[in-house]
Amino acid sequence: MGRGRQILDLRVDKPHSARMYDYLLGGKTHYPADREAAVKATEGWPGLPTAARANRAFLHRAVRYLVRQAGVRQFLDIGTGIPTSPNLHEVAQAEDPSARVVYADNDPIVLAHARALLRGTGQGRTAYLDADLRQPRSLLEQPELAATLDLAEPVALTIIATVHFVPDHHDPFGAVATLMEALPSGSFLLLSHATPDFSPEEINKAVAAYHAGGIEAQVRTHRGILPFFDGLDLLDPGLVLITDWHPDTSPFGTPTDSDVSFYGGLAKKP
Question: What is the pTM of this model?
Fold first, then answer.
């Protein structure tokens, strides 16, 4: 898609969801506009930084589960964001150095930092695609995908804290279904999504802060998120709060449901 030159136009005067997320995680790749928007969102939803950390922990637990229990060795990560170590390939390749990971994002700020995502083990492989979830067929046609992953073998499609930035008019459900259709039987979908179910007033204030910064966002209820898993077999414990999905000891203590306000689930393609 030829986004290389867009590195020069990062629009640091405007808030950016990836840089805001980096700020919430305690990273260093953000600018005043990002910090201001993140602070406003956090004023509306004080649990937002906790939710960001919980999402990273959920991703790490789920990737370890996929490698250890499910035997997955291939990952396609959509909506990668700014690299925050440990990244998905670091977690997967720590379990099995031969694991292969393809990262995909459509944001120039992520492209600017993509080299950090390409430092895998010698046995495994990593690649980065400049691609958009809203254009799944174009993503699937990129040669780097087939060159890195064997699409005849199971792949874990990971979409963490991403689809709530894709409103219904972009048909995120159809996009996820198209990607899963291209993957073989035995593949997995790992997904997390913000929800207003536990603290609607706070969550809606945070969404309004994103909208004020020109960032599309749409949170969904438990019932509204379940269709992403249509046609797949949800594994235990189902679509639950991300802190309730195979929990382990947290260095942040036990957050409240309203602080987390994210559902997550893992499903297998029959």
Answer: 0.92
